[in-house]
Amino acid sequence: MTSQPSASQPRASRLPPSGPSCCEEFAQVGLSRRGFLGGAMATGVATTFGSTVVQVASAPGADAAPAPARAVMVVLSLRGAADGLSLVVPHGDPVYARARPRIAVPAERLLAKDDFFGLHPSLAPLLGMWDSGRMAAVHAAGLPARNRSHFSAMEELEAAAPGSATRSGWLNRLIGADRNPSPLQALQLGGGTPPAALYGPQPFLSASSIENVKLAGADQWDTRKGRPRSLRTLWASQKDGLGAAMQAAFTAVDTFEPARTSSTTPSHGATYPGNDLGRALAQVARVVRSGVGTEVVTVDHGDWDMHTDVGNLEWGAMKRNAGEVAGALAAFFTDLGPLGDTVTVVCLSEFGRRVVENANWGLDHGYGTVMLLLGAGVRGGYHGRWPGLSAGPDSDLLVTTDYRSVLAEVVRARFATSTASVFPGFTPSRVGAMVGQ
Questions:
Q1: Cβ atoms within 10 A of the Cβ of 64, count?
Q2: Would you state the pLDDT for residue 60?
Q3: How far apart are CA 42 and CA 246, in angstroms?
Q4: First and final CA of the chain: distance in angstroms?
Q5: Which Pfam families does the record match to this protein (predicted)?
Q6: Percent helix, strand and coil across the chain, each rounded to 5?
Q7: Which of 145, 187, 143 has the alpha carbon at shortest distance from 369?
């Protein structure tokens, strides 16, 4: 058993220096996902330009210029299994404080508190959105069955079709519904492998940054633009699948130019935190402003695998991570200004943490967690059906809301799309977290 410091002791020296905090599986999940995505779900053709990947379908029309966006949805994945009981605290459940004698958030410090729930104080930058009814929390949400494996749970969450023979991600099915998509309709920003939610027959774009959405070598040294001209000439005569993929990639790069060359200065006085999530969301805002037809953007944030050092309000990984998310999202909506009325952000995680804290000021793999919705179409407040907590050593927050029911409301409200093709074989239950649903 690890010896424990006092709650008031400065914590900087106790935090993990970098990378995943515990699970070897989580440390390897990027590699595991990459191997998985290289298999059955990657049914299109991937064309790589430098650090940019354009995944294109073999179907006709994949090289079409994008139509105007119907809406914009940003899916923010909290990788590593975020503890919903810390982010949105059920202070009205008497088991909560007893199960977490050192890491429970005191009820008197909670924000937006009602008789039962309250927000973690590190979410303070989002309090304005909450008070204006533009932020919602759906508690006790998650997968239909327990799955404590990061890799397996991520795969299930992002396929969103358990028991189905479908081998594509839910976002790929969404962008293919009711229209012929272009590679710019869905975008993954940041390092690492694109999420399984995007993989399938429909095209999408993946880039470490929007500045990298260009032809490799097409830089200041190519003063006569010879490389792009040569590449286009080379592939113009190719009529096979690879030739079609290259033509689609050229179209994507050309059409994305307004986003790539847009101003890097945030609007409306927004100031982004200087972390990876802040930088990623600053680029998402540039994409939205440029109007290149992007409807779906995925961004990852981690590490939420807090087997150790969850901490309290003075120190710890929860305070740090919650603050990073809140600061970045608040800056994002400030930056967008009125355009924020066209954007919905969905925050979700593969599963939650146990009810009872462990010996290392941490929490082990659990089940239910919380989903956060922000922006356009959101009906603010607390949603979901509370199952009650128990304090056994392996006790979980049970799931009373299938996460697909929440996503289905977003899909219907924002994209006016039937959910039957996006979530095959699933009948959503009403959650009420989106206006009109």
A1: 16
A2: 41
A3: 17
A4: 49
A5: DUF1501
A6: 35, 15, 50
A7: 143
What is the SS3 assignment for 167-205?
A: CCCHHHHHHHCCCCCCCCCEEEECCCCCCHHHCCCCCEE
Q: What is the pLDDT of residue 15?
A: 36
- 17/25 Cα distance (integer angstroms): 18
Rg (CA), the chain: 22
Contacting residues for 77 by C-beta, under 8 A, at least 6 apart: 195, 298, 299, 300, 301, 348, 349
CA distances (Å), 268 to each of 87, 265, 272, 292, in order?
Answer: 28, 10, 12, 21
**Cα 289–chain centre separation:** 20
Residue 305: cis peptide before it, omega within 30 degrees of 0: no
Segments making up each domain of the chain, as ranges: 18-415
Tens digit of each residue's pLDDT (9 = 90 or more) over 379-430:
999 999 999 999 998 999 999 999 999 999 999 999 989 899 999 999 999 9
- Six token digits for residue 170: 């839910």
* Residue indicated by tokens 């037809």: 293
Report d(CA 187, CA 74) in Å as an integer: 10
CB 318 within 8 A of CB 304: no
Distance CA 1, CA 6 (A): 16
- pLDDT tens across 158-198, in order? 999 987 788 899 999 999 886 767 889 999 998 778 899 99
- Distance in angstroms (rounded) separating the CA atoms of residues 379 and 436: 9
User: Which of 120-129, 243-252, 345-354 shows the lowest per-residue confidence on average (mean pLDDT)?
Assistant: 243-252
Kindly tell me if the per-residue pLDDT of 116 is higher than 90.
yes
Burial of residue 55, with CB atoms counted within 10 A of its CB: 0-12 exposed, 13-18 middle, 19 or more buried: buried
- In the predicted structure, residue 221 carries a pLDDT above the cut 50: yes
353 and 367 Cβ atoms separated by less than 8 Å: no
Q: CA 308, CA 364: separation in Å to the nearest integer? A: 9
Which residues does 381 contact at the CB level (< 8 Å), separation at least 6? 133, 136, 137
SS (H, E, C) 117-162: CEECHHHHHHHHHHHCCCEEEEEEEECCCCCCCHHHHHHHHHHCCC
